[in-house]
């Protein structure tokens, strides 16, 4: 909800959560506190997905496929984080988000160094593309435009098809 409508009123958020606005305010003093809690939760969930994907094991393409699988359950949270401008405070990126970025960029750099991924696209760009595809996939499933069972294949094939290094010149 917040990813699509960042200015959603607290009473609508409470209704969507199945609680009263008063209950929501008992847990979160205001909108900023709610957003901070969602950021912390989302960063922790995404970090756990990266841990479960074992990014350092096997080849980079296999690790990326595992990450897509592990990220699917937290795709909506990742979409929220990707679009949440409060992760950038005073011109600085949130430390938790920076760690996620670094881990993912390291995976893409490893794939480039091993000759599996294209080197004409930066690891930073590939990281952004990953976040964008996961977030778009979450919303496509939510809106009924993509079947949940097709999400992994759709993301993996589009992303890997675009970043794999071609042996043809």
UniProtKB/TrEMBL annotation:
Residues 9-28 bind DNA. Residues 1-46 form the HTH tetR-type domain. Pfam families: TetR_N. Transmembrane segments: none annotated. The keyword Protease does not apply. The keyword Transcription regulation applies. One of its GO terms (molecular function) is transcription cis-regulatory region binding. Keywords: DNA-binding, Transcription, Transcription regulation. This is Putative TetR family transcriptional regulator.
